[in-house]
Amino acid sequence: MSTSSVELPPKGGFSFDLCKRNEMLAKKGANPPSFRKTGTTIVGLIFQDGVILGADTRATAGSIVCDKNCEKIHYMAPNIYCCGAGTAADTEAVTDMVNSQLQLHRYHTGRESRVVTALTLLKSHLFKYQGHVQAALVLGGVDVTGPHLHTIYPHGSTDTLPFATMGSGSLAAMAVFESKYREGLSKEEGINLVCEAICAGIFNDLGSGSNVDLCVITKGHKEYLRNYQVPNHRAHISSKGFTFPKKTEVLLTKITPLDEKVEVIEAGDAMEE
Amino acid sequence: MAKQHANWSPYDNNGGSCVAIAGADYCVIAADTRLSTGYNILTRDYSKICKLADKCVMASSGFQADVKALQKHLGARHLIYQHQHNKQMSCPAMAQLLSNTLYYKRFFPYYSFNVLGGLDNEGKGCVFTYDAVGSYEKVGYSSQGSGSTLIMPFLDNQLKSPSPLLLPAQDAVTPLAEDEAVDLVKTVFASASERDIYTGDKLEIVVINAAGLRREYIDLRKD
Q: Which residue spans adopt a coiled-coil conformation according to this UniProt entry (chain B) (predicted)?
């Protein structure tokens, strides 16, 4: 028998083993690569018949745009959606995880998911990780108890609000909401106000940009409006195009024929895909 | 006790990109007009291009307060030169002056990344590119600023600069026509605005040729 030890499965959660080494490296000038963050403007508001969520579509890695059209409005349940700002991997992972948990819960209880359930699952997870999971969320949906809108901060605190904004463009968007929001907006008015708020973030915040995504949730019905507004087009497209004549130079060509050592048996079952 | 480091910096980066391309009898200098700090836009309408002499234009990105001070200094020195020599400074002369001015502040630099463009005494286009402390080189084209890492490889591909180490010394100016070079500059900034958050709003293009100086503006992405 071999004496190699059996690999134990990891215990789960985060391993902080390399933190000291990273600190030492940073002091010596070797900084870690920047994460892909969603620089972001995300908003939500409650209108007459339900909830409208909005988001921009730019993802940045430092000062470079790494995705010009990413999706920041995540599906949680048929009647609940969640916008995510902060580290993209964190928002994806945490919303995915709670989505699965909600589905299992629906099977278990036989009932439609409630927004407060999603809220509690998200906030307890984020609190457990003490802010290291950098996800700032705007959670909205309509359930049996009515329309709900919440904001969730990376450390796990939550607010329940009639209108909310998060992300680097939140101030620009909130300025629009604070000026123009009122209770009992119609669907048209609500959609226009959310677009205005997101556009304020898109044009005034450098971390947000590209297009406006919307999601309108009402009792028993939802509309996911991907790229509802596309206000930014490429500035200039050359009419004559470009040629790329520089080819990679071939410096040396060496062909080594391989000897066949394996006998291929033609008959036999095909491998399962 | 480890040395305490300052929690205040005298510098800030106002973002933006500049490009200059030299042709056989023209020179194109361009820069975007966005002035930003951190994630905020200060103004969409700021010119980073300064005319230093009749046939000599400088575009600078970096810390615009230092850029303004640098422009003022060079303007004053040019005026003195005109009084003393009864003529305008040529582009290569201005290039050397800029280098010396930058190196003079070697230990508290101007946070300014410059490209100088214009016509030399024979009317041929010339472009000089600088770092923050005055190291400079005459080249056929150059870009500086936040979008330069996106712009430079594309210019290298399209304008095929020969290696400056080859002998006999090859002419770096591009064989492109003036309008083709301007089209290339527009494309390059359109692409940089897509991927660099600090580049956008408007593009200011200055073209110097035998007829004089002309300015053109086009809109870029505002997000």
A: none
